[in-house]
């Protein structure tokens, strides 16, 4: 079975592939566009709220500036919390291109498998994003309680998202190749968790977080194909 370090090394080595670069560019553009729209909506909502409720205690001329400062502060926090969810949601729509690029180079015998229909892609993306959002909301009280520990909050979020990401990245590839009677997951649970944990960690690092979803999808492709071949 291909180990995670080997799968990651192969994925990094293929980052210069034009097909991978195209996906990276599209994912980055769409993700940033979504956050820009969310930021504008947040600024507008804050500006309206301040005009309505705070104008009594602040000069009206300051409302736009206060709204802008709050929008930047809240937007930065929201971006840190939601980047993984949005990036993986966007990646679902371009996952076929990553899978095909990796398969064309390393697993040509599997490259002829049909892509998922757009409706199924959308359903998978929506379920993945909703599941991630709900899990992060559920663990938020525990994370807040652990704030005093210094590292407990980050550890709780990392553990939860490692589990979620490992499953999402595996299914992103596996659903395109799974036979009707293939019930067992092709990536062993410890490896799946390690993959999710690695990508979750990379998503917290500036600049590397832009590469993390693509590296995760490419690595998952290697792990799924090797895992399925070992199970045959």
TrEMBL record:
It is a multi-pass membrane protein. Pfam families: EI24 (PF07264). InterPro entries: CysZ/EI24. Its main location: membrane. Keywords: Membrane, Transmembrane, Transmembrane helix. It comes from the Bacteria. The keyword Aminoacyl-tRNA synthetase does not apply. It is found in: Membrane. The keyword Transport does not apply. The chain crosses the membrane at residues 27-46, 66-91, 133-160, 193-218. This is EI24 domain-containing protein.
């Amino acid at each position: 079975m291909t180990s995670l370090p080997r799968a990651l090394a192969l994925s990094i080595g293929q980052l210069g592939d034009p097909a991978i670069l195209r996906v990276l560019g599209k994912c980055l553009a769409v993700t940033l566009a979504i956050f820009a729209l969310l930021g504008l909506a947040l600024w507008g909502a804050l500006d309206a709220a301040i005009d309505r409720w705070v104008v009594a205690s602040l000069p009206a001329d300051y409302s736009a500036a206060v709204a802008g400062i709050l929008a930047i502060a809240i937007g930065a926090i929201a971006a840190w919390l939601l980047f993984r969810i949005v990036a993986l949601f966007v990646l679902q729509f371009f996952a076929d291109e990553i899978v095909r690029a990796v398969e064309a180079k390393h697993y040509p015998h599997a490259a002829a498998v049909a892509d998922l229909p757009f409706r199924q892609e959308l359903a998978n993306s929506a379920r993945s994003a909703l599941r991630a959002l709900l899990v992060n909301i559920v663990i938020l009280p525990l994370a807040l309680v652990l704030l005093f520990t210094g590292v407990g909050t980050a550890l709780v979020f990392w553990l939860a998202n490692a589990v979620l990401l490992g499953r999402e990245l595996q299914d992103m590839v596996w659903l395109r190749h799974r036979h009707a009677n293939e019930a067992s997951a092709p990536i062993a649970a410890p490896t799946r968790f390690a993959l999710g944990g690695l990508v979750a960690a990379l998503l917290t690092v500036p600049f590397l977080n832009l590469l993390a979803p693509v590296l995760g999808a490419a690595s998952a492709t290697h792990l799924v194909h090797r895992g399925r071949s070992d199970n045959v």
